[in-house]
What does this fold into?
Amino acid sequence: KRGPSATIEEWLLAAEYILNGGNDQIILCERGSTTFETYTRNTLDLSAALAAKKLSHLPVIIDPSHGTGRADMVSDFTKVAKFLSLDGAIIEIHENPDVALSDGFQTIDFKEYEELVKSL
It folds into this structure.
């Protein structure tokens, strides 16, 4: 995952460092940047994800759960990721997000996940 204040160049150089160490099992994940915005947990930077996709041969996914901190935005951002030809999304899912031990506010339930998958 890209660090919350890492530049695109730093993110790609970190992946290169791992590759040079012999590990080629790398997926780049955009998880949002820290900004002054308070409505969302982080600001999911789709331009960074798309730039990484264009600049690298590695698969690029997004984390709309952490990237927004809002369950009501997860499905929409996942659909946008598909539109941008990104390689996927990592999504927090729980049968009952209201009782999840952590991050319930950014977690979708099984029904919403099923509807999301059908829409992709």
Summary: Helices lie at 8-20, 46-55, 64-68, 71-83, 110-119. The longest strand covers residues 28-30. The two ends are 23 Å apart (CA to CA). The chain has one domain: 26-119.
